[in-house]
């Protein structure tokens, strides 16, 4: 059975920065994979 789309996005794990591993405080479905600190380097 197909899961409700809203429930799918609610259940995604938190994103982590690809460089330092810090939790990224943005929407999980966003394409970015670097935190604000690493993004500014």
Structure description:
The protein is mostly helical and 41 residues long. The protein has one domain (1-40). It has two helices and no strands. The termini are far apart.
Q: How is this fold's topology laid out?
A:
Blueprint: H1 5-10, H2 36-39
Question: Mind describing the biggest β-sheet?
Answer: none
Rg is: 12 Å
Domain module count: 1
SS summary, helix count:
2
Q: What structural class do helix, strand and pairing data support? A: mainly alpha
- In total, the number of strands is 0
The N- and C-terminal alpha carbons lie at a distance of 44 Å
Helix and strand sequence: HH
- Beta-strand residue fraction: under 5%
Shape: elongated
Uncertain stretches of 5 or more adjacent residues:
none
Helix content: 10-25%
Mean pLDDT, rounded to whole units?
A: 81
Task: Quickly describe the structure.
By secondary structure, the chain is an all-alpha fold.
Tags for this entry?
YhfH-like, mainly alpha, 41 residues, YhfH family protein
